[in-house]
Amino acid sequence: MGLQVGDPAPAFSAKDQDGKEVKLSDFKGEKVVLYFYPKDSTPTCTNQACNLRDNHELLLKKGYKVLGVSPDSEKSHQRFIKKYSLPFPLLADTEHKMIEAYGVWGEKTTFGRTYMGVLRTTFVINKKGIIEEIISKVESSKHTDQILGKTE
């Protein structure tokens, strides 16, 4: 069945692009946009990250902290952040601990080929650590609108 709106967000601990440990408990009392994406520097993932970058000030004003998560390494995240001037941390989930906990690993089909991968999904977590919204049909170039439209 997977996670549902109203469920407590699974606790996590992962390293960001600089090797700093980031935990959900670090954001107690804050709203978090936790977005899972398949791979750094691919076209759709770049579109999504740049949409969040371009609207980062608005998201901060609305009280949201943004965290991106993919199975890429810290070094890959460093390059992605540098290349696109991303103002928010990217968490390296190379062992798929968060990806599994949030249920975003699954079967995907691209160009008729079926394989397992990260299902692009965003979780909006409220100040009490409860999942307020799950966006599973992410529109990468309108992602901020999806986040704000669903939670305002």
UniProtKB/TrEMBL annotation:
Residues 3-152 form the Thioredoxin domain. Keywords: Antioxidant, Disulfide bond, Oxidoreductase, Peroxidase, Redox-active center. It holds the Pfam family AhpC-TSA. It is an enzyme of class 1 (oxidoreductase). It catalyses: a hydroperoxide + [thioredoxin]-dithiol = an alcohol + [thioredoxin]-disulfide + H2O. InterPro entries: AhpC/TSA, Peroxiredoxin_AhpC-typ, Peroxiredoxin_BCP/PrxQ, Thioredoxin-like_sf, Thioredoxin_domain. The keyword Oxidoreductase applies. Its EC number is 1.11.1.24. Monomer. Belongs to the peroxiredoxin family. BCP/PrxQ subfamily. PANTHER family: AHPC_TSA FAMILY PROTEIN (PTHR42801:SF4), THIOREDOXIN-DEPENDENT PEROXIDE REDUCTASE (PTHR42801). This is thioredoxin-dependent peroxiredoxin. It comes from Dyadobacter beijingensis.
